[in-house]
């Protein structure tokens, strides 16, 4: 009988680790973030930061390709999700074409009202975002510049139906 | 990156602040004056023409000018649209769309089609866009938005929803409207492109080829027209012609040619491709 409490504790701890992990999500005063890590690429120390639309900074794939690739990425774990709406990640691509880790996440339902999808789905979408490595490098007036951009996943009944922009 | 992160944070903060209404400016406007068009125009000139429009729309000041205008006269639809515009271009739909709804509630005649355009091109809410375009077509049957007829956008929406037959009818209506009563009007190359894309989706390759060739006659470097014409040629076993059009698509994209729509920098249009898809089609 004296062993029952440690056993229970161990069981509870094992159960805790068995439970699906929630996405890393930091709520700050001005929004929610998947990652708040800031990095410094010395090459880009003096680079300006412009919006994606000033430098043709959309990811160089068609929306249809991104939908297909993201759908395949989500399927690899055979998990099913529900709900409809939009999950948007906003981040910076540095002047050398590397996505910076600090990433804001915005979520709405299909009617654009604030909403939270299941954290596992948001984590999976974020994991997919991290696989995208072909961001363009951008120049402005002959100088390499960083740019902020976003990627939105439009979800209908748990399925990715569009990737924006 | 040392300089870019503080800038990024300030941009994020600025966008966050855009969504928060601010208190009225020190100048208290007479509420009664807001019903007067002339009075509204003086406020628009003050807060937008000589205010917001003199700063970047990503600056916090942009939203503050819009807020000041809204606080002075909450019935000016343009103020809500102006406040929504930078938000939607940065993916903040939760803040942008209620503002657009407010603009439409105040002036549907001016902003309903614009909201439909945003839903069609920016948020890919094709059913919502169709609803808006159908509604606005009832009181502006020959209206246009962003250089196109409402039927053009209805065609895009129906095509993206897989309603190809209806999309074909929409583009036919778009063509008829552009031709005009005299039948002499020039057809926009993107109407021809999308009519071709609908035919392509229906595997009607003769019609696809006809539309896309007309499109390329008007705009020979059109990357997507070349790309889908290449796919049409491939489907018909015309490999040499397919290669020729893929080459043309690739050269056009490398040369900076695009679909040529004003908002192409902000969002991909339906069927838009990149060099990646062109390379994939070569395999």
Overall tally of structural domains of chain B = 3
What is the beta-strand fraction of chain B? under 5%
Low-confidence blocks of residues of chain A: 17-23
**How many individual domains of chain A?**
1
**Biggest interface between chains:** A-B, 48 and 36 residues
Shape of chain B: elongated
Q: What is the CA–CA distance across the termini of chain B?
A: 39 Å
Distance between the termini of chain A: 62 Å
Q: Summarize this, please?
A:
The complex is a heterodimer of chains A (165) and B (283). With 165 residues, chain A is an alpha+beta fold.
Record keyword descriptors for this entry.
heterodimer; A: 165 residues; alpha+beta; eight-stranded mixed beta sheet; 25% helix; B: 283 residues; mainly alpha; Serine Threonine Protein Phosphatase 5, Tetratricopeptide repeat; 3 domains
Structural description of this entry:
The complex is a heterodimer of chains A (165) and B (283). Chain A is of the alpha+beta class and 165 residues long. Chain A has one domain (21-164). Chain A has three helices and eight strands, in the order αβββαββαβββ. In chain A, strands 1, 2, 3, 4, 5, 6, 7 and 8 form an eight-stranded mixed β-sheet that branches. Chain A is globular, with a radius of gyration of 19 Å. Chain A starts with a helix and ends with a strand. Mean pLDDT of chain A is 89; it is low at 17-23. Chain B is mostly helical. Chain B folds into three domains: 9-21 and 33-106; 113-187, Serine Threonine Protein Phosphatase 5, Tetratricopeptide repeat; 204-283, Alpha Horseshoe (Serine Threonine Protein Phosphatase 5, Tetratricopeptide repeat). Chain B is 66% helix and 1% strand. Chain B has helices at 4-18, 37-49, 60-72, 77-89, 93-106, 108-122, 126-139, 150-160, 164-179, 189-201, 205-218, 223-235, 239-254, 275-281, and strands spanning 144-145, 148-149. In chain B, helix 2 packs antiparallel against helix 3 (60-72), helix 6 (108-122) packs parallel to helix 8 and helix 7 packs antiparallel against helix 8 (150-160). Mean pLDDT of chain B is 91; it is low at 12-29. The chains are: A alpha+beta (165), B mainly alpha (283). Chains A and B meet through helix 2, strand 4, strand 5, strand 7 and strand 8 of A and helix 1, helix 5 and helix 14 of B.
């Amino acid at each position: 009988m004296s062993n029952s409490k440690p056993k229970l504790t161990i069981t509870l701890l094992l159960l805790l680790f068995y439970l699906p992990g929630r996405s890393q999500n930091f709520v700050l005063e001005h929004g929610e973030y998947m990652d708040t890590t800031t990095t410094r690429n010395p090459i880009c120390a003096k680079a300006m930061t412009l919006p994606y639309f000033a430098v043709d900074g959309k990811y160089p794939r068609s929306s249809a390709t991104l939908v297909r690739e993201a759908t395949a990425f989500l399927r690899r774990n055979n998990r099913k999700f529900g709900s409809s709406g939009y999950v948007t990640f906003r981040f910076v691509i540095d002047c050398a074409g590397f996505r910076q880790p600090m990433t804001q996440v915005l979520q709405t339902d299909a009617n654009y009202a604030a909403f939270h999808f299941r954290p596992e789905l948001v984590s999976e979408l974020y994991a997919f975002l991290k696989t995208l490595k072909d961001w363009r490098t951008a120049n402005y007036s002959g100088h390499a510049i960083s740019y902020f951009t976003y990627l939105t996943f439009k979800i209908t009944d748990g399925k990715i139906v569009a990737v924006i922009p | 990156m040392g300089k870019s992160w503080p800038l990024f944070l300030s941009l994020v903060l600025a966008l966050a602040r855009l969504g928060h209404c601010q208190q009225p400016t020190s100048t208290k406007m007479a509420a009664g004056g807001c019903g007067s068009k002339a009075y509204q125009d003086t406020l628009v000139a003050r807060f937008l023409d000589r205010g917001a429009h003199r700063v970047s729309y990503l600056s916090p000041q942009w939203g503050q000018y819009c807020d000041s205008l809204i606080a002075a006269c909450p019935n000016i639809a343009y103020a809500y649209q102006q406040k929504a515009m930078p938000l939607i271009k940065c993916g903040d739909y939760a803040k942008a769309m209620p503002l657009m709804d407010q603009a439409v509630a105040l002036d549907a005649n001016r902003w309903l089609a614009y909201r439909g355009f945003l839903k069609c091109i920016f948020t890919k809410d094709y059913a919502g866009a169709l609803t808006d375009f159908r509604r606005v077509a009832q009181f502006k049957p020959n209206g246009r938005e962003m250089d196109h007829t409402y039927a053009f956008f209805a065609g895009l929406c129906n095509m993206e929803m897989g309603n190809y037959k209806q999309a074909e009818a929409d583009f036919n209506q778009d063509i008829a409207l552009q031709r005009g009563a005299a039948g002499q009007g020039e057809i926009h190359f993107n109407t021809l492109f999308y009519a071709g894309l609908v035919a392509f989706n229906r595997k009607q390759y003769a019609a696809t080829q006809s539309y896309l060739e007309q499109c390329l006659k008007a705009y020979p470097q059109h990357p997507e027209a070349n790309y889908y014409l290449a796919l049409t040629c491939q489907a018909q076993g015309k490999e040499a012609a397919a290669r020729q059009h893929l080459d043309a698509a690739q050269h056009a994209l490398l040369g900076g040619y695009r679909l040529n729509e004003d908002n192409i920098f902000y969002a991909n249009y339906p069927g838009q491709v990149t060099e990646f898809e062109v390379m994939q089609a070569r395999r």
